[in-house]
Specification:
Elements: E1 33-35, E2 39-41, E3 44-46, E4 53-64, E5 73-87, E6 99-105, H1 119-130, E7 140-146, H2 156-171, H3 178-188, H4 192-200, E8 203-208, H5 213-216, E9 248-253, H6 272-279
Parallel strand pairs: 6-7
Antiparallel strand pairs: 1-4, 2-3, 4-5, 5-7, 5-8, 8-9
Helix pairs in contact: 1-2, 2-3, 2-4, 3-4
């Protein structure tokens, strides 16, 4: 099913409650619930509960290269990468970068749980360090629940990059707009169709902007699924390269509710560069 504009989940109670996903009413690329104060966050209700901050959000998978829209058109689908983040509740107060990662779901046995090697937390650290925050807040724990098959053409890496951006924006209180988040995404994942679908939800078209000559001579642009150096890994103390403004652009396309997306997922992985031989 297609994921459209899911509204933020808001919970004004002081007790955590289980949220049930209703696919027929699912709208949007992000769900965030924070338990605690009454401060309103951009993507949901920011609440404080016994001195701890709890955050839950979801990023959809995506199918890209729709029809003739190679590297342009992408659509968000209702399989999600789900994150549960807690601050001030980690069992290991001396964890690397102040973060402990746990994981379940698709491919969990092969996912690196070291914050300086895990793609999602490396992305978050890159964005935080661009804003002079070198680590996560003390005692941060990140639980990943992944429902997106890896290496199956469903934008798992793009969803991971977007989730890392959302994580950094939230724990760092950065206040980034989604358009600015797209700039950061495109410094890491140079396929705008996947990341834009995961970031904005729905059916989107994307393209890369013509950058100024001074931006084009920067050695880290363009990248191809590689974090800018120094960034993400072991902290060097240096500030990583900040993305130019407006690297990419997007447009939302109307999608009739009578049209349903059906995706066939193979039970084997294949490199994206060799996928074309399977199609023809």
């Amino acid at each position: 099913m297609i994921a459209g504009d899911r509204l933020p989940v808001q919970d004004e109670s002081l007790e955590p409650r289980k949220k049930e996903r209703k696919p027929s009413a699912a709208r949007g690329s992000l769900v965030m619930t924070r338990i605690g104060s009454a401060e309103t966050a951009k993507y949901g209700e920011n609440l404080a509960f016994r001195g701890k901050v709890l955050t839950h959000y979801e990023v959809p998978c995506s199918s890209a290269n729709i029809g003739p829209g190679f590297d342009v058109a992408g659509v968000a689908l209702t399989r999600f990468l789900e994150l549960h983040v807690k601050i001030g509740e980690s069992e290991n107060s001396r964890a690397t970068s102040n973060c402990v990662i746990t994981c379940e779901g698709e491919g969990s046995q092969n996912i690196d749980l070291a914050p300086h090697r895990n793609l999602l937390t490396r992305v978050a650290l890159y964005v935080l360090r661009c804003h002079d925050q070198h680590d996560f807040p003390p005692q941060t724990s990140v639980h990943i629940k992944n429902d997106i098959p890896l290496g199956r053409g469903l934008g798992s890496s793009g969803a991971c990059v977007v989730a890392g951006l959302m994580l950094a924006n939230e724990v760092g209180r950065l206040g980034l707009s989604k358009d600015r988040m797209l700039d950061y995404c495109l410094m890491i994942e140079r396929h705008p169709d996947n990341v834009a679908a995961a970031l904005y939800g729905g059916f989107v078209g994307t393209y890369l902007s013509d950058l100024d000559p001074e931006d084009m001579v920067r050695k880290e642009i363009p990248l191809s699924e590689v974090l800018p150096t120094p960034a993400g890994g072991i902290d060097t103390g240096l500030k990583p390269p900040i993305p130019p403004l407006g690297i990419g652009n997007h447009m939302r396309f109307p999608w009739s509710p009578t049209i349903k997306a059906i995706v066939i997922i193979p039970d084997f992985g294949k490199a994206a560069t060799r996928t074309e031989t399977c199609i023809h």
